[in-house]
Amino acid sequence: MNLSADNQALLNEKQINEEEILRQVQLLRSGTLFTSVEAACTPGQGITVLQDEEVELAIGVFNEAKNRLKLTKFVPASGAASRMFKHLFSKQLDSTLCQQFFSEIERFPFYPEIEESCGKPESTESWQLQVIDFLLSEDGLNFGGLPKGAIPFHSYPDGARNAFIEHLHESLGYGISQQGGEVHFTVTKALSAHSREQILNHAQNLSKEQKLHVSYSEQFENTDTVALDEQNELVHLADGRLLFRPGGHGSLIKNLAMIDTDVVFIKNIDNVVPDAQKGTTYKWKKVLAGTLLMLVERRDELLRALKEGDRTAAHEAHSFYNKYFALDEVSFGSMDELVALLDRPIRVAGMVRNQGEPGGGPYWTESMGRLSAQIVEASQIDLNNSEQREIMSTASHFNPVDIVCNIKNLDGQNYDLDRFVDHNQSFITHKSIEGREIRALEHPGLWNGGMAGWLTLFVEVPLATFAPVKTVNDLLRDEHQ
User: Fold this and answer.
1) Alpha-carbon gap, residue 265 to 249, rounded angstroms
2) pLDDT at residue 452 above 90?
3) Which stretch of 160-169, 210-219, 260-269 has the lowest confidence by average pLDDT?
4) N or C: which terminus of the chain has fewer CB atoms within 10 Å of its end residue's CB?
5) Which SS3 state, helix, strand or coil, does residue 335 take?
6) pLDDT of 91-105, one tens digit each?
7) What is the distance between the alpha carbons of residues 96 and 213, in angstroms, rounded to a whole number?
8) Where are the alpha helices (DSSP H) in 229-268?
9) CA 7 to chain centre
């Protein structure tokens, strides 16, 4: 590559080598990257539906084991709140969403601030525009410039809680042990020192009798990616420097890999409910964690025996893999193959019945040399292919990002998680910058191709565990009141 001295210095600063840039360029020039799905995961064929006694067993396993374990909740929280307020930014007051927002404005947890600044609700256009300006501008509440986690989500007698604070309270229900509990937020530099201090102080107040800790990390600069213009050339900014963009939530696999913990709960920042609704969440987090612990214990038993050359263990390992992680019967040629197949991080992911929410779902797909259960986004499936459309139409479940993970190997060391990333599942997105259309690359999603090489078990969980806030109007749903 013919890079200027300034761009070579930029690569050095970001700790990105030229080979990585070439790899990204090749992916971008290859065109749209689709994942070919073989079948939808359905109950009994990739999705485990637990019976009542199995639910109670999993809860019991978790409750008995948790005090020997360090627990961490990992919350991707770098997303901006601006998308929540898209219909208010447009100021199309006659739109359905705007009309709903103003007709029910007193139900929002930030209504007291609106009333104090703008007065009581009026039906006039001027009052509504004043409210929008107060909510979104820097001179007001600045919701348009905050991370989503900083937006007040729920009302309580002692004041409103934002999503960051709600996740701390939720962790008390399942994420604390005698070894402590941690809530790890991945954030951007835009989360001010004041906001971090507020979250930290709240955690300290909650943990006077319990060991609750808060930690943060930012996306690593060496996961930034390049973009191509319409001529398939690298995009440069006006000053001649290469354009780099954040590489999507798949970049966070590096953040996850650095956490020293026994069990990781992964959950999105916007999927959290008030205290009165948290009971179902507590229960099913324990179910998923208990199921994970049973799988990890059995995996480790088998790996120890296989590494000692136990032929009986080979038969048992074969049965274990086919029972939990295969669609059809899989046979193996050697003990080494069995070890390689089982010596992987494990995730147990909750799946809800599909109610038409946009996003990814569970599918069987060929990835990294094996047919395995994967979470695939709708945008990764070639909808111009009739066979792929037909498979997608049979999908019964949706991915709510409700995942419990084991990232330690038999020796108690963290796996090198990058080994289990399917880099062919990168995303190509179309953007506009400085008036130019560009194609940008995003790394395989954290729970998509970023975990393609993991051992994966999908478990059906109740719809009540899923309450995302994609627009501010979602806070009007019963589960957020």
Assistant:
1) 16
2) yes
3) 210-219
4) N
5) helix
6) 999 999 999 999 999
7) 42
8) 253-257
9) 32
Is residue 75 helix, strand or coil? strand
Q: Do residues 259 and 184 lie in contact, with contact meaning Cβ atoms separated by under 8 Å?
A: yes
φ, ψ dihedrals at 314, nearest 5°:
-60, -45
Q: pLDDT at position 355, please?
A: 77
**What are the structure tokens assigned to 193, written together?**
């020192």
Q: What is the pTM of this model?
A: 0.94
Q: 299: closest CA among 327, 325, 330?
A: 325
Cα–Cα distance for residue pair 290/56, rounded to 1 Å: 9
Distances (CA, A) of 122 to 34, 114, 226: 50, 12, 48
Q: How much is the pLDDT for 435?
A: 79
pLDDT at 196: 85
Rounded-to-integer distance, Cα 276 and Cα 37, Å: 39
Residue with tokens 């780099």, as numbered in its chain: 244
Is it the case that residue 115 has pLDDT exceeding 90? yes
**Cα-Cα end-to-end distance for the chain:** 56
Confidence class for position 358, pLDDT limits 50, 70, 90:
low
Q: Which pair of tokens denotes residue 330? A: 């899989």
From residue 133, how far is each of 97, 102, 129, 142 by CA, in Å? 17, 14, 6, 9
For residue 105, give the amino acid letter.
Answer: I
Give the position of tokens 């941690």. 182
Look at residue 245 and give its three-state secondary structure: strand
Please report the pLDDT score of residue 183 as a whole number: 95
**Lowest mean pLDDT, pick from 47-51, 177-181, 279-283, 471-475:** 177-181
Neighbouring CB atoms inside 10 A of 458's CB total 23
Pairwise CA distance, residues 14 & 279, whole Å:
44
Residues sharing a CB contact under 8 Å with residue 318, sequence separation 6 or more, in sequence order = 330, 331, 332, 338
- Within 10 Å of residue 481's Cβ, how many Cβ atoms? 14
Regarding beta strands 397-398 and 152-156, do their DSSP bridges make them parallel or antiparallel, or are they unpaired?
A: unpaired
Q: What is the pLDDT of residues 417-442, one digit of tens each?
A: 999 999 989 999 998 887 789 999 99
Question: How do strand 42-43 and strand 46-48 relate by DSSP bridges?
Answer: parallel
Rounded to the nearest 5 percent, the helix, strand and coil shares of the chain are 45, 20, 35
Instruction: Say if residues 27 and 21 touch (Cβ distance below 8 Å).
Output: no
Burial 357-379 (b: 16+ CB within 10 A, else e): eeebbbbbbebeeebbbbbbbeb
Q: Mean pLDDT across the chain, nearest whole number?
A: 93
d(CA 317, CA 302): 6
Position 334 scores a pLDDT of 85
Rounded to whole angstroms, the Cα distance separating 33 from 428 reads 7
What tokens appear for 18 in the block? 């030229």
